[in-house]
Amino acid sequence: MRAEPLRKKKKVDPKKDQAARDRLKKRIRRLEKASQELIPIEDFITPVRFLDKVRQRPQVELSFEEGERRALLLKKWSLYKQQEHEMERNAIRSMLQAQQEALQELQLTSPELHAEAIKRDPSLFPFEREGPNYTPPVSNYQPPEGRYHDITKVYTQVEFKR
Description:
By secondary structure, the protein is mostly helical.
């Protein structure tokens, strides 16, 4: 039962309290009126050294024959990939159709086997899920010693006084 005696509450003058609230409201209004200065995003700003016209590659002039050869090669490649895609789609479609026909035949012959055939087999297509890829911080981690050069730019908001 050894506690400090309770402190007396200070009596606050209601006029001073109201004046402080008014000053705070006035300051908030002033901050809302002043337009906030936008902080630039440096990723969108191209450095001046990259804007130099000397650094640009010269445009390579192709002969007419080379341009025609490349265009024809591109057309042949596009046709080849289109045919490859169509063959793959047709193969999948025929396999699915054969599977459906086999399942229909199986249902006519043996409904029990059909029920077993349409069940999902978890060992055939295993599903594994991983948790988050981050780990919590190690409490007693000692960072390696070395020098750190902080190049972070600090922007400050300027408060306008009227």
